[in-house]
Amino acid sequence: MDRRSVLGAGVVLAAAVAVRPAAARAAEGPVAVSEADLAAARTLFAADAYDRLGRLLPLLLDRAEHGVRSGPAGAARAAGVWVLASQLAVKQSRTASAGAYAALAGAAARRSGNAVVLASSARAAATPLRRTGRAHEALTLLKEAHAHPTAVSRPPSWTQLGMVALTASYTAAQAHLGAAARDFADEAEDTALRLARHPHGGGRPSQLSAGQCALYRIGTHRHLGDVDTALAHAARLDPQALPTAERRARAATDTARTLLDAGDPAGAFAQLRLVELAAPGEARRPSVRALTAEARPGLPGLDAYARRTAPGSKSSPW
Fold first, then answer.
1. Which residue, 13, 42, 99, 61, is CA-closest to 246?
2. At what angle do helices 115-131 and 135-147 cross, to 10 degrees?
3. What stretches of 47-148 show up as alpha helix (H) in DSSP?
4. 7-27 pLDDT per residue, tens
5. Of 263, 58, 247, nearest to 166 (Cα)?
6. Taking residues 37-48, what's their average pLDDT?
7. The model's pTM
8. Residues 64, 78: contact at Cβ < 8 Å?
9. What is the share, in percent, of the chain residues with pLDDT greater than 70?
10. Which of 115, 209, 241, 314 is the least crowded, having the fewest Cβ atoms under 10 Å away?
11. Which residues have C-beta within 8 Å of that of residue 47, sequence separation ≥ 6?
C-alpha cells in the first residue's frame, strides 16, 4: 500500500483528537464507533502501521465502550474494535490482553446477532487460546461459529465461512487432529473457488482466496509434521496474490518457520528478509525476532538484519 494511503487512513480517527479540545469533546457526550473509524483502523492494521494504530486505539476502545449498548449495529462495530485490539495484542505477544479483548469482542458479537461478526470474534479468540495450550477449546469455539446460521447464498457470508474454516484447520492441526485439519482446509478451498466464480465486494479483493488458503496450508501442514507438503504449498504461493502487507509478511514468516524445521537456516533467513520488505513492523515482532535468533550465526547480512529489527531500533513500534 502507498505510504500516503497508510498515513491518510488514520485521519478520520485522529481528527477527533486533533481538531477539538478535550473539554469540547467531553461536552458533546459519548461518541460511538463509526463505520469510517473502523474501516480506517482496519486499513492501518492490514498495512503494518501497528505503531499508528496503537496510538489511535485508546480512542477507539473508549468509543467501543460507549457504542456496545447502542443497539445491534453499535455492538457489531464495538466487536470489530475489540477484534482489532486483540489482533494487535497478538502481534505484540501480549497474549493475556489479546484474550481479554477477544472476550469483549465475543460478548459484543453475541449482542449484535450478526453471524459475520460472530465468526470474526471467534477467529480472534482462537489465537490466544492456542497460545495458552487450549487448542481444543479454540476449535470448539470455531466449530460453533462455523455452524451458526448464515445467509449461505450471499458471497460475503461465504468469505467469513471460509475464513473460519481456515482458522479451524490451523487450530485442529495444533490440536493434532489431522483429519479435521485437512477437512476444514479442503472446505475453505472449495468455498474460495465458489467465491471466485461469483465475485462480490465492489472490486475489492476478497479476504478468502486461493492464495489465502495456500498460506494457511503452510502452517497447518507444518503443525501436522508434514514439512514437505508445507514447503510445496509455500513454493506454489505467489505472495503478491495476497491482499495486504500483513498477509504477505505472514506467508514469509510461516515459510521461514518451516524451513528452520527442515534444517535450512539460510533459506529461512531469506524469508525473514522478505518479511522486512513486505512489512517492517512484522519483522520487529517478538515472535519473528525469535526466528532471527534461531538462524545460523555467520550468515551474510544476519547481524545487520538483527540490529535493524531489534527493539528500540529506529522506527521500531515496540
1. 42
2. 170
3. 50-67, 72-91, 95-112, 115-131, 135-147
4. 344 444 444 433 334 433 444
5. 247
6. 94
7. 0.85
8. yes
9. 84
10. 314
11. 1, 5, 6, 9, 244, 245, 246, 279
251, part of any domain? no
Name the residue type at position 278: A
Residue 128 lies in a domain: yes
Distance (Å, rounded) from C-alpha 224 to C-alpha 83? 27
Contact by Cβ (8 Å): 268, 235: no
Residue 292 lies in a domain: no
Domain span at residue 64 reads 1-133
Q: Is residue 66 part of a domain?
A: yes
Rounded to whole angstroms, the Cα distance separating 134 from 121 reads: 17
**Of 309, 243, 240, 298, which is closest to residue 273 (Cα–Cα)?**
309
| Percentages (nearest 5) of helix, strand, coil residues in the chain | 75, 0, 25
DSSP, collapsed to helix, strand or coil, labels residue 112 as helix
Grid cell for residue 235: 513454493
Q: What SS3 class is residue 262? A: coil
Spatial distance between the Cα atoms of 97 and 240, rounded to a whole number of angstroms: 32
- Per-residue pLDDT tens digits for 145-167: 888 755 444 555 788 889 999 99
Number of domains in the chain: 1
